[in-house]
Amino acid sequence: MAVQTTPATLVETERKDAWWISPASFFVLFSLFGLWATFRAFQNDHYEIGGYLSPFYSPTIKLGLKLGRFEISPALLILPFPLSFRLTCYYYRKMIYRSYLANPAACAVKKPGPVWLIRGKNYFGEKAFPFVLMNLHRYAFYAAAIFVALLWVDTFKAFFFTTNGVTQLGIGLGSIVFLVNVLLLSFYTFSCHSFRHLIGGGTDCYSCSALERTKYGVWRKVSFLNDKHGLWAMMSLVSVALTDVYVYLIATNTLTDLRIF
Questions:
Q1: Number of domains making up the chain
Q2: Is the residue at 121 inside a domain?
Q3: 97 in any annotated domain
Q4: Alpha-carbon distance 196 to 219, whole Å?
Q5: Could you read off the pLDDT of 213-226 as tens digits, one per residue?
Q6: What is d(CA 235, CA 90) in angstroms, rounded to the nearest whole number?
Q7: Does a structural domain hold residue 104?
Q8: What is the 3-state secondary structure (H, E, C) of 55-95?
Q9: In which domain, by residue range, is 173 found?
Q10: Where are the extended beta strands (E) located within 65-172?
């Protein structure tokens, strides 16, 4: 079979399918997310209105620290924890290697030209800096789980509205946005390979006791979620950004929250 080289990809491969769509779309989406998250983290404003608190600024932290005339944003202390979970996630590691490093860009695709310093390097695993830091994923999971619990609290608060000093249960469009976001984040976090191992790992016999049989049942459910881990990873990335955008638009009076109930 003839090897094809296309101007669009500048790589050699025998593959005829659109293999480049996945790494290219990840590159665009994750880059846009990074730019928006960086802007919002340093903005330190328009992140809370009524019962809506941006996930970039949850939990609420009052620092009161200043660098010259600028107050240090609490998001700079919050975001590293969920971000460390994402960056060390198995799915994100695969996509970062394929999209940003192109090492390689896909299976059966030759590494790109000499402009990439990584060309000609052999892969020896994640044993050298900075890739050795990827092994922190199992610990980053615990931080991510705590933040998901905090976001569930924020979602609960998003269903209560105060009018004329009276707080009542209600449903706004923002309430739905928050609920969808926390559900997708829960699916992503608890479909994690580390959580799957935490639930079912270190067990030699799943049928030897009621506890082990329970563990097996939970492990199967987590394995079901784990099968779509990449899907939850990207959908939750989009939902987090959209939730923050929604709070930003409401807080800046660009939009008015639609009250459903």
A1: 1
A2: yes
A3: yes
A4: 6
A5: 787 888 888 888 88
A6: 16
A7: yes
A8: HHHCCCCCCCCEECCEECCCHHHHCHHHHHHHHHCHHHHHH
A9: 19-191+228-251
A10: 66-67, 70-71, 160-163, 166-169
